[in-house]
Amino acid sequence: MAEPILEMKDINVYYGAIHALxxxxxxxxxxxxxxxxxxNGAGKTTTLATICGLMRSKTGSLRYAGEDIANAAxxxxxxxxxxxxxxxxxxxxxxxxxxxxxxxxxxxxxKEGIQKDLxxxxxxxxxxxxxxxxxxxxxxxxxQQMLAIAxxxxxxxxxxxxxxxxxxxxxxxxxxxxxxxxxxxKEGVTILLVEQNARIxxxxxxxxxxxxxxxxxxxxxxxxxxxxxxxxxxxxxxx
Amino acid sequence: xxxxxxxxxxxxxVVLGVNxxxxxxxxxxxxxxxxxxxxSIILAVSLNVINGLCGQFSLGHAGxxxxxxxxxxxxxxxxxYFDEAQAKYVAIEPMFSSQWGFVPALIVGGxxxxxxxxxxxxxxxxxxxxxLAIATLGFGEIVTIxxxxxxxxxxxxxxxxxxxxxNTFWIFAFVVIVVMFSWYLQRSTFxxxxxxxxxxxxxxxxxxxxASRMKVMAFIYGAFFAGIAGGLLGHLLQTISPATFxxxxxxxxxxxxxxxxxxxxxxxxxxxxxxxxxxxALRDVESEIGLVGVRMVAYALVLIxxxxxxxxxxxxxxxxxxxxxxxxxxxxxxxxxxGEE
Lengths: 239, 341
Known about the structure:
The structure holds two protein chains of two kinds.
Chain A: E1 6-15, E2 18-28, E3 33-37, H1 44-51, E4 61-64, E5 67-68, H2 74-77, E6 82-85, H3 97-104, H4 111-124, H5 126-130, H6 141-153, E7 159-163, H7 171-186, E8 190-195, H8 198-203, E9 207-212, E10 215-221, H9 222-227, H10 229-235
Parallel strand pairs in A: 3-8, 3-9, 6-7, 7-8
Antiparallel strand pairs in A: 1-2, 1-4, 4-5, 9-10
Helix pairs in contact in A: 3-6, 6-7
Chain B: H1 2-25, H2 28-53, H3 61-76, E1 79-83, E2 88-92, H4 102-121, H5 129-148, H6 168-187, H7 189-199, H8 201-206, H9 211-237, H10 247-260, H11 265-289, H12 294-309, H13 322-328
Antiparallel strand pairs in B: 1-2
């Protein structure tokens, strides 16, 4: 196995007196889709925020592509290929779809490459091509999520962090979004996916971590976890 | 870039022509109002970059103006201070004593204001919304209090005797420059990054935009042109005092933006013209119907009605686009360069 693209070891994060992450360790290998599932408030988003440098760990180590990023500034990580598509879609509602996408390429300077990726983005998401000149805020929830993903792709990520892409979307749209997650992964982007919708996340990933009250309780292959009786009872509503 | 210089040269030529026309044929009172409109446009358009595009609510614009006005006056005006030893007033001759020294003096004033912008911007980065507004308001007050206690530049009595260098040409030359710069800025990656910070700061950060750096840049940009506007105003009024730049001046500029539509540059221009010219226009109405004070009531009424019926301002966030102008005028022209004033 190649060197992991992301390696978190013994990460502890506090919100004031609240101990949000209690010694989280996880690894993501190049080419994988890894999912982090868990209930509300378990620490999923905090984990992503810590990777992005929005929160700081008091202990442990955080390495990305062999480099220590524990103290790296958020906006510098993008140039290194570590990109997050934030929760609640986080698009820029008063900018057009195209301007949103161009902002995704903010850290890049190669004009031709940007235009090429813009066209490629429209190929993956034809709906966005139709709505190019429309303001981001006028899109439907699913389209906004597509825009958020397409925008992250514009920065040519090596590791894409997806925070709750299914949040507040209709089941049919969720299906479409996850199909594009597969497409993006096939193009060589490693994905760390945070989800509450455990079933669909497990179906579309290679490996999974289950997070409970700030601790990793279970980890394993996604296919195995789908049939694991404990996971079934707690997250899949069966058994 | 070449096109930009072309537009600039043409616009400046137009402004020069307009200046000559106004001086020769138009009543000086009207010219004065037009000049005040020009200064308001510079203020509103520059504040729009901070408040409108970047979404940082600043109430410190008058402070930046004061710095620009006093620093440029320092270079152009004979200052007097009381020398205790000789028991008489001693004069300091100005460094730039001709019309040619005016632009360098203005630019030095602008740079001083820009430095102040960075000084305000850096410590207040972590503040948002109301808190930032209060901090910048505090900055403006600090500036006026410092000037009040600085005797060499007139203290509380103000500084008289500024040479009357400001005229329609200089004022509208800077209007053209600030409008053009801001217009290109809004369409550049830098401008989009500022808007991204306004729309969603977290998302902007994870796209690789350094929000803190961008905010300071916005403050520096806005403060520079506020400083220039302050210098122009000083050399138009010929007397400046701390009271000229009190917080009401900042609020006036914010009201111009809100009226025109926060985030729209054309809105800022229209807001600046309306709020500067309206009280003057109403002055005539007032004397006509013989009701003194009706002017300010009408002024307030316009604002209240607008906020009820169009809270997003006249233009909202939209711009009066070049396409629209292009349809009105055959062959694309430079658009809203102040020359039409």
